[in-house]
Amino acid sequence: METVQNYLAMVQQADPLSLVLFGLLFLAVWFLPSLLALIFNRKHIGKIALLNIPAGLSWIAWGALCVWAVTGKLGDKLAAKARLKPVG
DSSP letter string over 37-70? Predict the structure, then answer.
C-alpha cells in the first residue's frame, strides 16, 4: 500500500508539462504499430490500427503487429517473386 501512496505522491508533485509529455510518449509507443503501418503497410492500416488497441496489453501481440506493420511491402515483393516465369 505504501508503494501506491508513494506513486500517487510522486504524480502529484510532477509538473503538468512532464505529465503531458509522458502521456504523449506513452501513446506513441502504444500505437507504434499503427504509425509504422502508415509508412510501410498502408494496405492493412485499418486492421492494424483496430488490433493495436487491445494488443498494447500484450508484448507478444504488440510485437507481432509491429512485424506485420513493417513487412507489408516485403510481402508484396515476395509474392511477385514467387510468380516468376519458369526458365527455359
Answer: HHHH-GGGHHHHHHHHHHHTT-HHHHHHHHHHHH
State pLDDT tens for residues 30-51. 999 999 999 887 888 899 999 9
**8 and 36 assigned to the same domain:** no
Same-domain pairing of 67 and 39? yes
Q: Which domain holds residue 77?
A: 31-88
Please state, in angstroms and rounded to a whole number, the distance separating the CA atoms of residues 87 and 76. Answer: 22
Are 48 and 68 within 8 A, CB to CB?
A: yes
> Would the pTM of this model clear 0.85, i.e. be above it?
no
